[in-house]
Specification:
By secondary structure, the protein is an alpha+beta fold. The protein contains three helices and six strands. It is elongated and about 60 Å long.
Amino acid sequence: MKKLFLKIRGLLMQVADLKYVSWDLGQLEQEMPPVQYPCALFTIAYVKCSDTQDGDQRVKAVITIRIAFNTTMDRTSSNFSDHAADIALSCLDTVESVYSKLQSYWDDEVEQLSRVSQTQERRNDKLTVIAMPFETEFDEVAS
């Protein structure tokens, strides 16, 4: 898992708009999140592991990226000008950059990453958080 973590972290650090990239440890649920915005926090879940003939495992993993902005999208209604809406929606450019960086990434160790969905979290604070899970598969060698 460490190799995959470092790989995803490295890819996200290449997205120029992101000011903070880290493992998701619940930072956004703290009263004063210890992050800089916009940020990308991520988790890795092994959703299916199956043994191979040589004793290693084939792993299907889901990497969930949470992209957070310290802003609301309250200026997107028809009560505001297109210019105001465009400014409010500029965070979606960062979301698109993250998607473009991860979608279809592959190398010798990890199969192609594929986004499986994208949702905006409902929150009671002033943060806008977009969650994007990506799936991949790889072989994990037993030590």
